[in-house]
Amino acid sequence: MSRISLKIVGASGQGINSIGAIIAKGLKRSGYCVFGYREYPSLIKGGHASYQVDISNQHIRSTETSVNLLVALNHHALELNMEELKPGGIVLHVTPGWQFPEHHQKLIAERNLHVIYFPVEDILNRLGAAAILSNVLLTAFVWSMLDQDIEALKSLVGGKFAKKKALLELNMRCIDEGFSFVDPEQGTISVSLPPPDKGFASHLLITGSQAMGLGAVHAGVRLYAGYPMTPSSPLLSFIAEFENKSHMVVKQAEDEITAAQIVSGAMYMGTRALTATSGVGFDLMSETLSLNAMIENPTVFVLAQRPGPATGLPTWTAQGSLLQAANCSAGEFTRCVISVSNSQDAFDLMPVAFNLAEQYQISVIVLTDKQIAEALYTQHPYDLEKAEIDRGRLVVDPDKLKFLKSSDRFDPHAKGGVSLRWLPGSDAATYCAQGDEHNAVGAVDESSLNTRLQMEKRLRKFHGLKAVLPAPHLSTGGRSAKTADWMDAGDEIELLAIGWGSTGDVLQDVMRSDELRGRKIAYLHYTYLWPLRTQELQRLVKRSKRVVLVEQNYQGQLGMLIRMECGLDIPDRILKYDGRPFFYDELLSSVLERCANISESEAKFPGFEHAGASS
Predict the structure, then answer these.
(1) What element of type H or E holds 46?
(2) Could you give the angle at which helices 134-145 and 150-158 cross, rounded to 10 degrees?
(3) pLDDT tens, 40-84?
(4) Which of 86, 357, 528, 570 could form a disulfide with 364 if both were Cys (CB 3.0 to 4.6 A apart)?
(5) How far apart are CA 367 and CA 552, in angstroms?
(6) Above 70 in pLDDT, residue 614?
(7) 83 and 9 in contact (C-beta within 8 Å)?
(8) Where are the beta strands (DSSP E) in 448-560?
(9) Residues 115, 71 contacting (CB under 8 angstroms)
(10) Is 176 helix (H, G, I), strand (E, B) or coil?
(11) Which whole-number Å values give the CA distances from 135 to 25, 90, 120, 289, 307, in the listed order?
């Protein structure tokens, strides 16, 4: 797989994102698959931030730790990011008179790095342009280093200023100046890209939050209520920007408790509604989650993960909230936990989440994380026809409503624990919905028999839900396992990786690497995390030499749920918990290390013999 990476580094507020986004959009139009990754501190301005674009003519959805081109917008980038350059890489900086310290001079010589000073202030003064246009100059110069067509860049930038003639002309002059600049010491230097694949030109360029927002619209969501909390805030922002087109009601609540209550009330009245939060914000919503379990009110919550505890790292990523989602709030009740992993299922899973919520009259918690929420994906256009809306046992037919009895609402003998549901204001029998334990009509009933019957009713849904949830998805070498000849032949699996969420795409890219070509490696990806299905995992473990768990948390939380469900302990774990996602090259190195340690005579994974071992 051919991969080129460039990284723009500076302070928040310097236009880092605008340079990265324009380059990514232009390269996608030219026929490249791009993946954008942001790092930034929890500051509005200042600090140390970056925007990295990974580029390939093949499908990629991950980023790497080393880059071919470093664009340094201040001296801090020169001090902190030089080590990330690959041999033969280029550092482009704008700091006049910068003297590299001795250890960086040695690095430059050892790796044969090219250093280019771009005199942005001199060019701006000559053009009579404001400092804000420095990013256009830099973008144009980088565009020329990538050997791309200047007219394509002009078309991209010009579309923003078509109605502002003077500003448009100044931007075009900046593009001409930047594109034609030649460093007097280094001469013309270019970054060699692989041949493009024009199929990518028709793809979308979209973040995970934007994909989820479109998925919510596709699911029939008519109201969104939320309180800003990174990394869920981009979803609120996108839906708010989109509300005039979607005609969705958008409410920024005063806190997470209110947001959860608004959404629960809307769903109780029959309107599909959504909220999203992160970390401790979900703690505040958990009381409402418990209430919805008692009144059997379908709801969907998006939990965008970031490192905790407390405020933690607000602008970084993690997978540390799986156990929180599966176990939060008071009492025992059925809930469903699913996780998106990229821009495809961020769209696809929103209709699924709402259908499950209404079919089983439960809360569905959709996990995402900062990496997914803010990453920029090259995405195949979505299928806008395949989503189906299933309202479950909701009764709206007037002829059927008149035959309902109050006791139908919480009938403890309802099949699968899912009773009939009808909306307030319907011309039908009335019932009471409250947080106390209640009988079939919703009246308070603390008797032993009723308590047992209602508890069993609510938890029968768990077994029915578990039976219908899809099994985890198996892939080999980035392809569906159904197309792998060795898999069909029943050969031993050298290494079986298990993961969920954003780790899945990195593992898929790793499995497509040249270094692992021909190796019998499989990846089992969990989308549906609670209730947890383990039959496929148990089957695969029996034919695997080595099994490794890959998660972005300290405890190996999916591994803990697996062990709780079926007794299988997975002691070999690749865990990361520093706020950064798994990078392509570091995960590839970890997998290669484990593959190198698999001997020809090694027995299959001992599996359940480890069930009593400590993790």
Answers:
(1) strand 46-56
(2) 150
(3) 999 888 899 999 999 999 999 999 999 999 999 999 999 999 999
(4) 357
(5) 13
(6) no
(7) no
(8) 473-476, 479-480, 493-500, 521-526, 528-530, 544-551
(9) no
(10) helix
(11) 15, 18, 9, 46, 32
